[in-house]
Amino acid sequence: MYEASQGSRFPVKWTAPEAALWGKFSTKSDVWSFGVLIYEIITRGQVPFPSMSNSEALQNIETGYRMPSPKQCPSYIYEIMLQCWNLRPEHRPTFASLRDVFDDLFITAESGYRAAECISR
């Protein structure tokens, strides 16, 4: 657990609520930020919470709001994002479990590509 010193500045829209509000940073707050990174990747760099100020985003998050799924986002990826954005840090996935999920996704995708290559030959 890392506690930010008073006056520390950080990117609020990428920061977990417990870190933004109380300065409590941990690997679980990093997982929240990872979920926002996935959102950025899927949207090709769109700023999170695009129509909200930092304070509006935090207020909305506290009352249960989560960014909607981007149009081109597969539902299983959006589910991962939602898990990362759980308000309770202890209910967020660990980086180890996220690595396992993405390993499985890449293996499945790679197998699909290989099958497609065999079919096209």
TrEMBL record:
Domain (Protein kinase) ranges: 1-107
InterPro entries named in the record: Kinase-like_dom_sf (IPR011009), Prot_kinase_dom (IPR000719), RTK (IPR050122), Ser-Thr/Tyr_kinase_cat_dom (IPR001245), Tyr_kinase_cat_dom (IPR020635)
Example GO BP: cell surface receptor protein tyrosine kinase signaling pathway
Keyword Ligase: no
Entries under Gene3D superfamilies matching the protein: Transferase(Phosphotransferase) domain 1
Single GO term (MF): ATP binding
GO CC annotation terms, alphabetical: plasma membrane; receptor complex
Keywords, sorted A to Z: Kinase, Transferase
SMART domains recorded: TyrKc
Pfam family membership, one: PK_Tyr_Ser-Thr
Signal peptide region: none
Designated name of the protein: Tyrosine kinase-1
Lineage start: Eukaryota, Metazoa, Spiralia, Lophotrochozoa, Platyhelminthes
